[in-house]
């Protein structure tokens, strides 16, 4: 029997040169404070301006349990005042918005990307992304209960690749 699963990621990102003199964030809308759009005209796919969401829909992927099929996520650029008071300090480190990615009752395989300009070959950069995973099997007495099945866990990865690389081409993402 397929368990009901809610997988949620909350993300904030920074890409900074490592040099102390040049600590300018190179990402567009890094903290998601700069608005959002409905990607591909889909109301349930709110994506921060300057970013692109990628996802699998209607297929399986390596590491997923037999019988499970990935579905397109729902996403929101979540305003802090809309979050439960008890979750605000967990999902909002600074600013008033966070990116929330979720899908009830289905596994997710998704990514958030941005092409970054102004990088210098051979230079070192620091990428910081705060990712909060909130996987819920069900609720009991108002509290979240995580899945007991290890295969329903979450893998989070960050990386960089040359512009134009297909989002799932793991050989090009480091």
Describe the structure.
This protein has 174 residues and is mostly beta strands. It contains one helix and ten strands. The chain has one domain (6-172). The strands form four sheets. The chain has a four-stranded antiparallel β-sheet with strand order 5-6-1-8, with no helix packed on it. Strands 2-3 form a two-stranded antiparallel ribbon. It has a two-stranded antiparallel sheet with strand order 4-7. The longest helix is centred in the middle third of the chain and has 7 residues, at 85-91. The chain has one helix spanning 85-91; strands spanning 6-17, 36-38, 46-48, 52-55, 74-79, 97-104, 110-113, 125-136, 138-140, 143-145. The N and C termini lie far apart (37 Å).
Question: What is the element layout, followed by pairings?
Answer:
Layout: E1 6-17, E2 36-38, E3 46-48, E4 52-55, E5 74-79, H1 85-91, E6 97-104, E7 110-113, E8 125-136, E9 138-140, E10 143-145
Antiparallel strand pairs: 1-6, 1-8, 2-3, 4-7, 5-6, 9-10
């Amino acid at each position: 029997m397929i368990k009901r699963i809610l997988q949620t990621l909350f993300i904030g990102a920074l890409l900074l040169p490592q040099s102390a003199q040049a600590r300018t964030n190179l990402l567009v809308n890094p903290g998601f404070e700069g608005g959002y759009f409905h990607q591909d005209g889909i109301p349930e796919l709110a994506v921060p301006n300057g970013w692109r969401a990628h996802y699998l829909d209607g297929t399986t992927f390596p590491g997923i349990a037999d019988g499970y099929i990935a579905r397109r996520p729902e996403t929101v650029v979540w305003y802090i005042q809309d979050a439960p008071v008890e979750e605000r300090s967990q999902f909002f480190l600074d600013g008033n918005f966070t990116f929330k990615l979720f899908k009830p009752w289905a596994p997710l395989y998704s990514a958030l990307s941005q092409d970054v300009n102004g990088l210098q070959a051979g230079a070192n950069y620091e990428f910081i992304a705060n990712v909060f995973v909130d996987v819920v099997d069900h609720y009991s007495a108002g509290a979240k209960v995580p899945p007991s099945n290890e295969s329903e866990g979450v893998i989070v990865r960050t990386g960089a690749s040359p512009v134009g690389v297909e989002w799932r081409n793991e050989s090009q993402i480091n």
